[in-house]
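Re: beginner question about structure tokens

> Can someone show what the tokenized structure looks like for a real chain? I only ever see the sequence side.

Sure, here's an example I had lying around. Input first:
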Amino acid sequence: MFRPAVIALLLLATLPLDCNAYIDPNAGGILFQLLAPLLAAIAGVWMFLRRWISQAVRRLWNALTGRSDK
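And the corresponding structure tokens:
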């Protein structure tokens, strides 16, 4: 039913192997140093664009409805 090559591959795939998964204790610090300024820049751009977009939408809405800015 199964070919010997398929059985051999299945047995090979189920063999337990050594896992060397060590993360350096300072890796979190490096990630923070990389991600913190990036996230701060993204938040700053988001806040700047949110204000600009809301003002543009408000001006467009007022122009469409015939209202003046108060």
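Each token stands for a local structural state, so reading them left to right follows the chain. The radius of gyration is 29 Å.
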